[in-house]
Inverse folding.
């Protein structure tokens, strides 16, 4: 029987994914290395106004915000997060403490609003998506990027499937994450009246020592104590997954990085 501590706090900021965790910066760096190439490709295809005002919502460790400041040197790039400890000393950006679930911006404040690996973890994701569209000026862009773990549920490998399902369950139970929500992003933008909606995906594999593999391994390792505490996995399960990833004959799709964008009327 799975037991939990009823006194545990619920939500991202009190979870094993929160910024105060000792390994969080290193984990975020693995996410950046895996996701940045897709994010760069998406922004490179957007037609932006001169001197755009860009909001990077939930900027994390700031690699994309810093890149945006270099890519658009005449832009105003505002990087926000509920915890901005990793956003210091990044040239070319303005930093603001901001809770996407409760804080807003005036209508038509930005030419681009971007969020990455954020909304899937917030129970208010649909409301935030609706509000974020209003923060974009007419003709501007809403760019939402997130992670889908659907590929991990398709595996026939029993060890990988057990660990993947346990990770998804942990995210649901402790944070309220929906790790399949990213698959709906293009339709979500269309439903809010955006046009010129497009999307791109990037497959992330484990067992190949690539960027996505490093991100998956770092996140699973950081989740280990919580998985054991909630009896979702045993130490033998975690050890078996480490051995599986180290097997030269093993590699499988584990996640999909999804980017979706649309223009505001």
């Amino acid at each position: 029987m799975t037991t939990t501590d009823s006194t545990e706090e619920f939500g991202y900021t009190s979870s094993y994914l929160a910024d105060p965790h000792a390994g969080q910066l290193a984990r975020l760096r693995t996410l950046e290395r895996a996701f940045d190439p897709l994010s760069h490709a998406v922004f490179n295809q957007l037609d932006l106004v001169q001197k755009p005002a860009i909001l990077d919502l939930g900027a994390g460790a700031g690699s994309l915000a810093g890149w945006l400041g270099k890519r658009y040197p005449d832009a105003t790039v505002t990087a926000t997060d509920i915890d901005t400890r990793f956003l210091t000393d990044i040239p070319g950006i303005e930093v603001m403490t901001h809770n996407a679930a409760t804080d807003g911006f005036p209508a038509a404040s930005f030419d681009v609003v971007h969020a990455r690996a954020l909304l899937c973890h917030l129970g208010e994701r649909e409301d935030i998506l609706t509000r974020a569209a209003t923060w974009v000026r007419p003709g501007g862009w809403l760019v939402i990027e997130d992670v889908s773990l659907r590929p991990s549920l398709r595996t026939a490998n029993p060890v990988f499937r057990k660990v993947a399902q346990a990770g998804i369950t942990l995210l649901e139970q402790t944070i309220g994450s929906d790790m399949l929500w990213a698959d709906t992003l293009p339709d979500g933008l269309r439903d809010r009246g955006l046009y010129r909606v497009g999307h791109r995906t990037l497959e992330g594999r484990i067992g190949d020592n690539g960027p996505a593999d490093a991100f998956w391994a770092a996140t699973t390792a950081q989740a280990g104590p919580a998985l054991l505490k909630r009896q979702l996995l045993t130490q033998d399960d975690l050890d078996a997954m480490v051995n599986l990833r180290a097997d030269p004959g093993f590699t499988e799709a584990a996640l999909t990085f999804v980017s979706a964008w649309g223009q505001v009327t």
Q: What stands out?
A: The beta strands are 53-57, 76-81, 94-97, 110-116, 136-148, 195-206, 252-263. Confidence is low (pLDDT under 50) at residues 1-7. Residues 51 and 110 are 11 Å apart (CA to CA). The longest helix spans residues 24-45.
